[in-house]
Amino acid sequence: MADVDYNLAPGALREKPPLTPGAARQSSFVLTENLVTATRPGSIQAESFRALRSTLLSQHVNKGRRALAVCSPSPSAGCSFVAANLAFVMAQAGVNTLLIDGNLREPGVHEFITSEDMGAGLGECLADDSLPLATVIKRVQPMLSVLYAGNAGIAAADRLGSSVFRSLIAQCLRDFDLTIVDTPPSSFSADARRIGAVTHYALIVAKRDLTFVKDVKILLDELVADGAEAIGTYLNDY
Questions:
Q1: CA 219/CA 105 separation, integer angstroms
Q2: Which domains does the chain have, with CATH numbers?
Q3: What is the band of 10 on the pLDDT scale with cuts at 50, 70, 90?
Q4: Three-state SS at 236
Q5: What pLDDT is attached to residue 27?
Q6: 208-217: b or e for each residue (b if 16 or more CB lie within 10 Å)?
C-alpha cells in the first residue's frame, strides 16, 4: 500500500456563516449538555476551546495537516470531552470536520452528540472493509460529521493498526478538511498509539490534579517512537 501524505496542501475551507450554537436538537441529532461549546457558548469552557481552535487553525489546519488524534495517558482525563467540543468549534469556523470515535472499548462520543439511529460505525468498517464509509458517516450539521464506534466491539480494536484503518483515514483526509479521532487511555491499551501512528499528529489531554506529568512524558515518548508528532497538550480543568 502506498504511503499516505498527511501534509496535504490546505484545501479551500468553505466560507459559510458560523453555525448557530445553543440549539439542543439538530435534525435527528441531539447535542447534549456535555457539548458545552453548543449548549453553553458563553462559558469559560467554551471560550477555552475557541482559543484552542485559533491555535490549531494557525499551526495545524492552515499548514495542511488534516488529521489529529486526541490522546490521554489515563482515564477520566476528558479525551471525548475535548475531541467532541473541539470538533464542534472547528466546524463553526467553517472547517469541514469529521469526528471519529476511535475508542472501541468504551465509546464516548455519543454522550456529546447522540442519535436514535447511530447504527454501524468504525468497528464495522474495520471488520468489513467492503462496507462503504459514506454509509456509516453521519452528517450532524453542514460542516460537522460523526463516525460512531459502532457495535463491532473490542475485537475490532486489533485492526486499528491495519491497512484497513490506514485506508479509511486516507479517505477521510480526502473528504474532510480535518479528521479528529477520539482515543482510549494509553494506560489501558495500545489503541491510542496505533491511531496516532496513522494520523501522524496527536493532541495530549491532561486533567488537573489527576494526570501525572511522568505519564504524559511516557505517552509523548511512545507517540514519537511510533512516528507521531504531539502538537501540544491541553490541560482539562473542567
A1: 19
A2: 35-236 (3.40.50.300)
A3: very low
A4: strand
A5: 54
A6: eeebeeebbe
